[in-house]
From TrEMBL, chain A:
The keyword Chloroplast does not apply. Belongs to the ABC transporter superfamily. Macrolide exporter (TC 3.A.1.122) family. Residues 2-225 form the ABC transporter domain. Pfam families: ABC_tran. GO terms for cellular component: membrane protein complex; plasma membrane. Keywords: ATP-binding, Nucleotide-binding, Transport. One of its GO terms (molecular function) is ATP binding. It comes from Lacibacter cauensis. InterPro entries: AAA+_ATPase, ABC_transporter-like_ATP-bd, ABC_transporter-like_CS, ABC_transpr_LolD-like, MacB-like_ATP-bd, P-loop_NTPase. This is Putative ABC transport system ATP-binding protein. It comes from the Bacteria.
TrEMBL record, chain B:
It comes from the Bacteria. Pfam families: FtsX (PF02687), MacB_PCD (PF12704). It is found in: Cell membrane. This is Putative ABC transport system permease protein. It comes from Lacibacter cauensis. The chain crosses the membrane at residues 21-40, 293-316, 349-371, 391-415, 436-456, 671-695, 723-742, 754-780. InterPro entries: ABC3_permease_C, MacB_PCD, Macrolide_Exporter_MacB.
Length: 225, 794
């Protein structure tokens, strides 16, 4: 599904140039659950953002389902993204002005789903995430675990083939964290490909494979299953 | 999608009350001003266009050009002769109607009332097709004793409008005669240059129509109708050819007799041009002449206000975008592309704009009476509610929403989601745009404030300047003539509260005479009695005042002012001769008065000649004891009514009528004040919003500084000084411009207040003080906040 070769990414500020990704290569097959680990600042988030088509690489190749997407413009990337990729962040990133229901509904709006269908799909997902009773609450009124469940619901409502999670449990206590990990595992078992960045060896055990990074490069891969 | 946008927009508005209030308040005030101005300009542009066939109606106007090319005189007036003469000599002139402002006395029971009554030719209604309520326009003005009334005047005299056939007693040549109402017309629309209340038929003697000397008589308006398709320029040429032929002999006679070398030029002024014309104004019974300058200034102020409100929107939205950065990032991650986000943010600006627009309609309605007073109009929002006005309002809405929303939408939609989502996001750059816009706002506001201050100074100067005579506690009563004068004076002086009574001519008269043998001099000529100069305390600096003990004074003595002496070049004025050669009269100067401002201060004091001949007397001038007005006014009225029973009684205080000469200035003053208050208000609330956002942005910094021991003052200063610097820069931009403009404007006044530096300093200090209050309020609040709280929120 994803094949990355010699990917490069630099950040230039006024004085220094940081190499965030240094000729990085790796591959993810459809249906895989991959964990990415490594010390702070090694380029994990940068990698995830490029895979998620939020950011451009500065060099190398990125095949998404066999198509080269490295040079896509913003419109094309947005289009590909909204139909194929769901995101989960450490800091939830829900929109404060929208209710739980409306937050989850938003991706469907952007993909042009009709209102009646939206209602059915959103309720279905909220039910699955066991957050249905909070549908009319605003994010500020929820606990961290609940917020992350809403974020996961929003990530999956469009039935994306790929979910990218950047430290999804980073802001949660262990029981809430386990719940979220269980959700991701369930999704993976239903066929969704997952790439997750984490600092927790515990969480990484849920995955099939761990990619370890250092200074913008992959150093080792552990196959768990 | 749209519903989702609406939801976010409304919730955002509700959540950020300060932001919403600032934007809605500013925009609604700006829009309300713009609406009023649109209404005003729409009204101006629609003037007189409601008359059927108006595009073929012209006014004959004339210009007298000196041999050196300078213009001696230009006027929209013609005489009784011009209409029939040109109509007979130029085939394209299909018909003509003459129209003259007039005033009659009407007896109603025992009372005599004054009434505007225009004199017109009998075909008036076939050219000016004002709608009638009763009667027939074709026949209404056939009989010499016919009158046509407006509905309002009919109601005033008879209590109803259906009054055809009823009679009114009109005074003509001293006696009251019955006139019959033949038609009642609808009141003329507010956007009409002719607003007649009563029409009488113009009666002209045979000689007035046949004597070619009347080519040189100008006292009424002549309107002509051109044949359809006729070219006005060609018609003017034919008119000139006809005039030069027909008047050739008369021109020669006049040139010889009066040493008149100028040449008359006749042109046609489209009827619809009259309202806004500066050269040939609407006068002599036509009303509402307007200076297009008013439209420009008003539009300028409204534009300023709207612009400043839009700047608030742009600045606050961009400054606040930090708060919304995450939302934007999330939307992008979820699949929104940039165009959709631009749509969303533009939509939000339109929602805000719409709320402001609705409020603005209300504000405009509320302000309308005040605005009407300022602009001399009787506008209403429903009046003129037509497609053009509605579409111009719609355009106003669209343009404002776009102006306010487009730039922020562009900036906000361009945020990089990767940065916004990882709290790495900062508004980059030094914010030059925001700073420049703040500078622009405060420059405009300062400009208007200085303009207002200068205007107030000049107005104060005009109304308080020593006129060279004492106009306090003096009242004037018109229509005291002939043998009534002596009796009236005698009776009034019996009242101990009445100190002096004098008499003069009513009105204003400019004429010309020869001095030093053959030099011609133009001057103002007034007729006054011996009590006039002492009453007004006007000093005689050479020779003597008129005196009843010199019986020859009334026939041959004149007094002149210093300006006259100077223009004549006399060393010793007393004894000089003023020769009115054209009616064989010679006068001898017996005294010189110190120059005094007999006319408004908009003019320099010109030569004036006072004459003692009582034929032109008509205005009684009465000096009363200070504070006795309430007691003495009924007494004067009672005396007047018993001595002059057949004239309407009216009076005026001289100082009040003097002030009225500066009505235009008073209006400008109000307008500018209004504009200045609004611009500074909207600028300040915008600045307030920015300072709130800036303080929020630096909440953590402030917290850390406090923990490290900084005092409230140092922190407040740190937070305020950036903004104050911008305001000070604005002052430096606005002041030179204001100085230039003020100087230019003051050149219009021969007598003007000094433009001193402290005026500017005071205005500048005021602006800085206001800005300081605005900014420091927020800065102090931020500086006083408990540091623990602010550190915890991060
Ligand atoms: N916008 C940016 N501007 C400059 N440098 C950046 C930017 N984003 C990331 N970097 C740099 O790129 C490198 C990789 O950052 P990245 O966020 O990918 O690290 P990470 O592995 O996700 O770290 P963490 O575990 O702390 O989240 C870091 O050195 C970081 O400082
Ligand atoms: Mg990271």
């Amino acid at each position: 599904m994803i094949k990355i070769t010699n990917l490069e990414k630099y950040y230039r500020t006024e004085e220094v140039e940081t190499v965030a990704l240094n000729k990085l290569s790796f591959e993810v097959k459809e249906g895989e659950f991959v964990a990415v680990m490594g010390p702070s600042g090694c380029g994990k988030s940068t990698l995830l953002n490029i895979v998620g088509l939020l950011d451009d690489p500065d060099g190398g190749s990125f095949l998404f389902n066999g198509i080269e997407v490295a040079g896509f413009n913003e419109r094309k990337r947005a289009d590909l993204r909204k139909h194929n990729i769901g995101f989960v962040f450490q800091s939830f990133n829900l929109i404060d002005e929208l209710t739980v229901f409306e937050n989850v509904e938003l991706p469907l709006i952007y993909t042009g789903v009709k209102a009646a269908d939206r209602k059915v799909r959103v309720e279905e997902v909220l039910d699955k995430m066991q957050i249905m009773h909070r549908r009319n609450h605003y994010p500020q009124q929820l606990s961290g675990g609940q917020q992350q469940r809403v974020a996961v619901a929003r990530a999956v409502v469009n039935n994306p083939k790929l979910i990218l999670a950047d430290e999804p449990t980073g802001n949660l206590d262990s029981s809430n964290g386990n719940e979220v990990m269980q959700l991701l595992t369930d999704l993976n078992e239903q066929g969704t490909t997952i790439i997750m960045v984490t600092h927790s060896e515990h969480d990484a055990k849920y995955s099939h494979r761990i990619i370890r990074m250092l200074d913008g490069q992959t150093v080792t891969e552990n196959i768990l299953v | 999608m749209f519903r989702n946008y609406l939801k976010t927009a409304f919730r955002n508005l509700a959540k950020n009350k300060v932001y919403s209030f600032i934007n809605i308040a500013g925009l609604s005030i700006g829009l309300a001003c713009a609406m009023l101005i649109l209404l005003y300009t729409k009204d101006e542009a629609s003037y007189d266009r409601f008359l059927p066939g108006v595009n073929n109606i012209y006014r004959i106007v004339s210009k007298e050009v000196n041999p050196d090319g300078s213009i001696l005189m230009q006027s929209g007036n013609t005489g009784s002769f011009h209409g029939p003469a040109f109509a007979s000599g130029v085939p394209e002139i299909v018909s003509f109607v003459r129209f003259q402002g007039d005033y009659v006395n009407i007896k109603k029971g025992t009372e005599v009332l004054g009434q505007d009554a225009h004199r017109v030719d009998s075909n008036f209604f076939s050219i000016m097709q004002f709608p009638l309520v009763y009667g027939n326009g074709k026949t209404a003005l056939q009989q010499p004793d016919a009158i046509v009334l407006s509905e309002t005047v009919a109601r005033k005299f008879f209590g109803s409008a259906d009054v055809v056939g009823k009679t009114l007693q009109l005074q003509r040549n001293g006696t009251f005669k019955p006139y019959t109402v033949t038609a009642v017309a609808k009141d003329c629309p507010q956007n009409s240059s002719i607003k007649f209340q009563m029409l009488t038929k113009m009666e002209l003697s045979a000689e007035e129509i046949s004597d070619r000397m009347n080519w040189f008589n100008f006292f009424l308006n002549t309107f002509v109708v051109l044949a359809p398709g006729a070219d006005a320029k060609q018609v003017e040429k034919k008119m000139m050819r006809f005039y030069e032929m027909d008047a050739r002999e008369t021109i020669k006679i006049v040139a010889e007799k009066y040493n008149y070398k100028a040449k008359a030029q006749y042109t046609l002024q489209p009827y619809t041009d009259i309202h806004l014309s500066k050269e040939y104004r609407a006068d002599n019974g036509m009303v509402g002449a307007s200076n297009p300058m008013y439209s420009y200034i008003l539009s300028g102020i409204a534009l300023f206000i709207l612009l400043i409100a839009c700047i608030n929107f742009v600045n606050l939205t961009v400054a606040r975008s930090l708060k919304r950065a995450r939302e934007i990032g999330v939307r992008k991650v979820i699949g929104s592309d940039r165009r959709q986000l631009i749509g969303q943010f533009l939509g939000e600006s339109y929602i805000l704009c719409f709320i402001a627009f609705v409020l603005a309609l209300g504000i405009a309605q509320l302000l309308l009476p005040f605005f009407n007073d300022l602009s001399n109009k009787a506008l209403s929002l429903t009046y003129l509610f037509d497609v053009k006005l509605v579409s111009s309002y719609a355009a106003l809405f669209l343009v404002t929403g776009f102006l306010a929303g487009f730039y922020p939408a562009l900036v906000l939609s361009g945020f990089n989601p990767v940065e916004t989502l990882y709290n790495r996001f900062r508004l980059t750059g030094k914010n030059y745009l925001q700073r420049s816009l703040v500078v622009l706002q405060f420059s405009l506001a300062t400009l208007l404030i200085i303009a207002t201050v200068v205007m107030y100074r000049q107005f104060q100067f005009l109304v308080s300047k020593d006129l060279g005579y004492n106009d306090k506690h003096v009242l004037t009563v018109p229509n005291v003539t002939g043998n009534k004068i002596a009796v009236f004076r005698q009776e009034l002086l019996k009242n101990p509260n009445i100190e002096q009574v004098a008499i003069r001519n009513n009105g204003f008269n400019v004429t010309l005479a020869r001095i030093n043998g053959n030099k011609e001099l133009e001057f103002t000529m007034d007729w006054v009695d011996a009590d006039y100069l002492p009453l007004y305390k006007i000093p005689v600096i050479q020779g003597r005042n008129f005196s009843r003990s010199f019986s020859s004074d009334t026939a041959s003595a004149v007094i002149v002012n210093e300006a006259f002496v100077k223009a004549a070049g006399w060393k010793d004025a007393v004894g000089q001769v003023v020769d009115f050669w054209y009616n064989n009269k010679k006068y001898t100067v017996v005294g010189v008065v110190k120059d005094y401002h007999y006319a408004a201060l908009n003019e320099v004091i010109k030569p004036q000649l006072l004459c003692n001949n009582e034929d032109n007397f008509g205005l009684a001038v009465i000096r009363i004891k200070e504070g006795s007005a309430a007691a003495v006014l009924p007494f004067i009225e009672q005396q007047y009514k018993s001595i002059v029973p057949l004239q309407p009684y009216s009076y005026e205080f001289k100082d009040i009528s003097n002030q009225r000469q500066y009505e235009a200035e008073a209006k400008w003053k109000k307008m500018l004040l209004f504009g200045a208050v609004l611009t500074i208000f909207i600028s300040c609330i915008g600045l307030f919003g920015l300072s709130v956002l800036a303080a929020e942005k630096r909440l953590k910094e402030v917290g850390v500084r406090k923990v490290l021991g900084a005092s409230v003052t140092t922190i407040a200063t740190a937070l305020s000084k950036d903004f104050l610097l911008l305001v000070v820069i604005s002052l430096f931009i606005a002041m030179p411009i204001a100085w230039l403009l003020a100087n230019k404007w003051l050149q219009n006044y021969p007598y003007r207040a000094a433009l001193s530096w402290w005026l500017f300093a005071a205005a500048g200090a005021g602006v800085v003080l206001l800005a300081l209050l605005t900014v420091s309020f927020q800065a102090i609040r931020a500086a006083m906040a408990k540091p623990v709280k602010s550190l915890r929120t991060e």
